[in-house]
Design goal:
Layout lengths: L3 E7 L3 H9 L1 H8 L4 E2 L6 E4 L4 E9 L3 E8 L8 E10 L3 E9 L6 H27 L1
Antiparallel strand pairs: 1-7, 2-3, 3-4, 4-5, 5-6, 6-7
Amino acid sequence: MPDIKQTVTFNARPGLVFEALMDSKMHSDFTGAPAKIGAAAGQPFTAFGGYITGYNLEVTKNKTIVQAWRAKSWPKGTWSVVSFRLAAAKGGKTKLSFTHTGVPASSLKGITAGWNSSYWVPLKATIKTANAAAK
């Protein structure tokens, strides 16, 4: 199965991007759907009202999130691995290097587009709003 690899730059420090991805309320706010996310390795998470489920494999605050991840519509026992790597970039920005491995071929096109439309675009908008409010 091919990997999804994306790189996104956010106009915020790594701590804010990490928090948005790992804090249940912030995650729910920027995606527009309920999420419940455990903070440490081994803890479970749900996103999009339980459509996405999994557990954290590795969590290093403000740097790394690795999760076992599955969609409700996938065949039973089918899992993938999602990896978010955060690095500080010039000007107080964050470079996020993202990989999603093990996505079933039938879901690859939709999930590839979904990361952009359901995560990166709304997260950038949330950060832009937060930055404007802070000024």
